[in-house]
Write a structure and sequence with these properties.
alpha+beta; three-stranded antiparallel β-sheet; 6 helices
Length: 135
């Protein structure tokens, strides 16, 4: 078993997490007047909840409004920024309002992942070269 200190990335985030790349999955979104985003995605019912829903009805989609910081992190989950870069960008924009930046950013990205709204990859997604092919 290896002993020693784990490598730290930006803002005290372990390097193994700092290198992770979150990518949004396709979900419906609405942009509010204050430019924050509302994520709209289908509910996942348990067997009992599905039975009740079929008989009683109700709303089949979840509407999750994001605040300004959440909207910024959501927009940065584009496959081009890893978690360390997202922390850096968020710290530059919000400073002390987001302290401690690394745990808060990672917790939010993890929450999005737990709800199947982002995928967490081990490397960046290569940019498509559509422009070169179109010429």
């Amino acid at each position: 078993m290896r002993k020693g200190k784990k490598k730290e990335g930006p803002y005290g985030l372990p390097m193994v997490l700092a290198r992770k790349v979150p990518v949004r999955v396709p979900v419906k979104t609405e942009v509010q007047d204050d430019e924050t985003v509302v994520l709209i995605y289908p509910k996942v019912f348990t067997r009992l909840e599905g039975w009740i829903f079929r008989r009683v009805g109700g709303v089949s989609d979840i509407r999750r409004p994001l605040d300004e910081m959440g909207t910024d992190i959501w927009n940065l989950c584009d496959g081009e920024h890893n978690v360390g870069e997202i922390c850096k960008i968020m710290h530059e924009k919000y400073g002390e309002d987001l302290e401690p930046v690394a745990p808060r950013c990672w917790t939010f990205v993890k929450m999005l992942s737990d709800r199947n709204l982002v995928l967490i990859l081990h490397k960046k997604v290569p940019l498509e070269k559509k422009e070169e092919n179109d010429e």
